[in-house]
Every structure is written in C-alpha cells, then in structure tokens.
Amino acid sequence: MRPRFPKDPLHQTAKRIARSQGFHLGSCIYEGWSHFRTVRNVIYAGTFRGRDSVLKVFDDPRIIYEVLEHRAFLAHNRSRLLTAPALYASQQTSPHTGWLVMERIPAAFRHFDSPLKARDRADFLRAFEEYRRIFPKRPTRPLMLVERLSSVEYHRLRIDRWMDLANSAEEQRQLTGRRPLLAPREFLPRFRRALRLMDRTFRARRQVWSHGHVKPKEFFTNAQRTRFYLTDFAHAKYYPEGYDFALPIWADWLIGGNWRWPYRQWRKGVFTWIDDFVPVAQRLGVRGFRSLMRGAIAERTLGSLLADIPSAQSMSEREQRRRIRLLYRLLDELTGR
User: Fold this and answer.
1) With 0-12 CB in 10 A as exposed, 13-18 as middle and 19+ as buried, what is 301?
2) CA dist., res. 207 & res. 95, Å (int)
3) Burial of residue 193 (number of CB atoms within 10 Å: 0-12, 13-18, 19+)
4) 15, 49, 148, 151: which could join 202 in a potential S-S bond, CB 3.0 to 4.6 Å?
5) Which parts of the chain fold into alpha helices (H)?
C-alpha cells in the first residue's frame, strides 16, 4: 500500500529526502509535536538498500544536533551491552534541521513502558549505568553559548522559558472564562522555595555531557535483557549534574505515575526510584547523591507544573488539577516546608 502524506510540510520534506536517497517509504510510525503546536519530527518505516530501515526527519524550534551526536556515540561506543541504531545515511542541514536513515530496531526488541515494574526497573538501571560509563565525557562538537552557563544559570534559563509557556496557557484559560490551574497564592510561594533549594543545590555542581533524554521509552531491549538500544540523541549537550538521574523519575513517575493515588502512596514511587539509584550513583562516583536529588527533582517538578501539565491536551482538567496537588505536596516535602 502506498504511504499517505499529511499536509504538514515536514511530511513533504520526508518524501523528498526519501526519493533523493533511494529510501522506499512505508507508513509513518511516529510524529512529534512541539509546545508551539507544530510538527517537529516524523519517522517513517521503509527499506534502504534492501534493509529494513527508518527515516527520521526533524525541524525543531530548538537547536538540535541529533545527527552529529548520534554519529559521535556510535564512533565512541565499545559496549557489548548497549548500542544505538546503525546510521546508513544522514545529514545535519542546519542547527534546527536534518535527517537520518537508520537501522530499524529488530522486532524482538521492545521499549520499557511506564510506570516500570520491579524487574524492568532493575534492567533499566543496568542499561542506565552502562550508558553513563560509555557516553562521551567531553563535548563532541563546539559548545553553544547556553552550554557555557553554570548549573544554576542553566536551570534558571529553562525555568524562565517554562514560565512563559505556563503564563500563556493560563492567560488563554482566563480569556475563555476558566479557573487558573496554577493559582498564584498556592503556586508562587512554592515556586520561590524551589528556586532557593535549586540555587543551594547546584551552586557547586558541575555541568555533565549527557544524552539529555534518557528515560524508559528511549531504551529498547530483547526478552532475555542481554542487549539494549538507546535512541533519540536530539537533546545531547551539557546538563547540570543530577539531571540524568532525575529525568527517568520525571518520565516514569512524575508524569507517568497513578494520579488517583493519595499522596502518601504516590510519593513512594518517587523515593523508591531515588533509593534504587543510590548504588548506581555510588559506583559512578556521584557525591552527596540524596542531597543532589532533592534539587534535581525540584527542577523536574517545576518543569511538570509549568510546561507539561498546563499544555497537556490529552489530560482531563480533573487529572491536571490532581497532578498539580500531588506535585505541590512533593515540593513542600523537598523544600522542608
């Protein structure tokens, strides 16, 4: 069956690239959207020189060096446990655009689904530790201006951007006669306490060269858990120490946990994750890990409150408000209120 191409320009770009590279297009298997309601990447299945492959095309409002970072990881990697899809052809056409023709991950491999069960978490942590051991320790390209910021400055910059997103979403709610999700009396005192905690936490913490998006759905593994694929190198750059550890907790629990649970039950998902990360962090030489994670989880919590929940089109208002209440309680606990 011939593939259908939606009207969005990125799908048309994929069609042109496929034709020029001799990639035989099948169906679109993924479409990613930005906070600005535009398609930022598409992935098509197909064949390339007789091999099952995928074509990924991206046009992102952020600076994305996915092609360069994917190549760098493959060139650097010597692990027998963890790999990334092979690259058959690729081009970084600008700081925001590019395309990759890649190995299609074998059908026997599946990504982890959140929230992770106990066995899955143990296997994820094994793959995560291997990732941190083998990932390049130094930048693999010239640094961007933002990557030269301190850890405190970097987090503040991102939170400022998320505040703009939340402010726009709240203004839209107000114009349509709906109650705000982030009532200022409840949100702003917690926001300020979280910023103070983050400033204390990251003042003496370094920046770490990271994949930047290591979460359960980026790892694919076989039934025997003897081999792992890591995907999506679009976010690789310098991040404050601790970010790599907090991001899986955010993906698996802060936005993936059961929002119907009472706080005392729900919070266990966050702190069990931290407990399970402790031996990994010790083997990797991370000092003051529990203290570091208080600030790192506070940052992820603010990200959820400002960027994830207000813009979540698939969430009911009931779920949005319930998740906000859980995250408020978590911030209260983290900041020692």
Assistant:
1) buried
2) 22
3) middle
4) 151
5) 9-21, 66-76, 118-134, 151-175, 184-202, 243-249, 263-283, 289-303, 317-334
| Exposure string for 143-172, b = 16+ CB within 10 A, e = fewer | eeeebebebbebbeebbeebeebbeebbee
The proportion of the chain whose per-residue pLDDT surpasses 70, expressed as a percent, equals 97
pLDDT at 1 over 80: no
State pTM to two decimals: 0.93
Positive/negative CA dihedral, 149, 153, 158, 160: negative
Helices (H), ranges, 176-238? 184-202
77 and 134 Cβ atoms separated by less than 8 Å: yes
Q: Who contacts 76 (Cβ-Cβ below 8 Å, separation ≥6)?
A: 134, 135, 136, 140
Whether 3 shows a pLDDT value over 80: the answer reads no
Query: Residue 317: phi, psi to the nearest 5?
Result: -65, -35
What is the crossing angle of helices 289-303 and 151-175, to 10°?
30
Q: What is the mean pLDDT of the chain?
A: 95
